[in-house]
């Protein structure tokens, strides 16, 4: 034993001397420590993503991550792609210094934090793993020059609709998108699509309050000839409805026009509103012909004013984007998509727009259009500086979060101003009362429709007609303590714990994550959320009396369905958030852009939130996806045919 100890000491001395020499002598103690980064095993961690908790299960050896499994509810086609990309980078590089995915920041940060939490349990030096940065692939730099019949700028819902419409009208198409993925705001939207639809609305009963609403539009004093004509048409439709003896919910494109017009304070273009409302249902049929599926009912979306919102089968806006991308993939020989490609300026020749200059990942991109260019770059809800520049209707919006994706920065509007395009309504910025307190997003919103929920403030009192316009509700919310409210619903909205909201989040999952609260009585719910129990009970009782018709609603609300009288009861927190910018470039009925003198700019068309003049001061909930589809189709056809 003594001999063995002596040998070990000698070996130790030799190895120590070798470690102090200038030449390497095998694995030193320091190198061994670097190599043994983890305690082998499987560990779990979790963190919040954009739509809820992300759970990561990480398996490690001493020196590497051997497996990584993730459970999440992130947005299909956006957040899930971010997670997929980051998982691959983490596993292949055993690193936390991987790049986040542009446009999916919350999802990217959520997965990294979840993996970090798991690796901490494995004894990892988290800081060292973060400092081990992973660079993107080296790419060959070079400029690109291409030509197509139609060039579309922007890969959100409007741009995708325009690209497909142009192709269906015989054009070859190049679509560019500055983000690394398609979808824009459409893919993260609540997906409600407004359209009068007699077939789906036939199962709904018309209430006396709804009848009074229709008659109020007919009897309103009006001087605009186009609006007076709508009123006359609606009056004839209403008389026909009453004579039929029907008790089904009444609706028509005419009623939709009047609600859109008056909902925007009469500031919207009657010509554009007319085209919009007449084409919402045909555009649904167009989507369905391409394979898109909608649920077999309609509902009233926040600020929609009427029960005409269609809901896709797929969550959020993924149904729209999947339908468009499937079409593009099937026709890839005629439709080319360039991602990570940002438009910089229009190419103008002899007063006509003939193409666009852009910047790609590899260099300059110059695109020429034989027939026309379609601008569909969206609004500026995510551009704080631009919001502050144009905002005249709200208090400062500098510290208000947004529902918009990070690419909604108004680039197309700025480009258009550089060629003297006419813009309108830039001060008309829409806020919602439905932002997540942490992110500003619409995720976590527990409402399922307007009729079956109320809002209460921190005292437990109602403060507004919850069926009114979005701007009315948001202004009322801003007058409450901390601009904060609770949405209150009951079992009518969530028959089971696995019932999902409009963002595919289950109510049980939201409660488990602390984003919603659940109780078997209103008193217990009040205690959980910190409001006065007596006030909350009174607020619900008064609402229920208005549903019964035994008491007139104190806020003039007209949209009701079920009472809030069946446990369990739920509450979810909400704050104001920037949602939509109604202002933008001026377009004609054919989606042609015009200059400051009202003259058509040859070769240039526009659709979607980059345009102004349709919604006036306030957009009805559910009108955006309908509008971008209708005018996306028109812009694509007009560009293809050179209208």
Describe the structure.
With 643 residues, this protein is of the alpha+beta class. 35% of the residues lie in helices and 20% in strands. Strands 4, 5, 9, 10, 11, 12, 20 and 21 form an 8-stranded mixed sheet that branches. Strands 14, 15, 16, 17 and 18 form a 5-stranded antiparallel sheet that branches. A 3-stranded antiparallel sheet has the order 1-2-3, with helices on one face. Helix 6 packs parallel to helix 12, helix 6 runs parallel beside helix 19 and helix 11 (270-289) packs across helix 19. The radius of gyration is 28 Å and the shape is globular.
The dominant shape is globular
Query: Can you count the helices?
Result: 19
Mean pLDDT: 90
What's the CATH architecture name of the largest domain? 3-Layer(bba) Sandwich
Helix/strand class:
alpha+beta
Whole-number tally of structural domains: 4
How many angstroms separate the termini? 98 Å
- At the fourth CATH level, what is the homologous superfamily of the largest domain? FAD/NAD(P)-binding domain
Q: Tell me, what is the CATH class of the largest domain? A: Alpha Beta
CATH topology of the largest domain: FAD/NAD(P)-binding domain
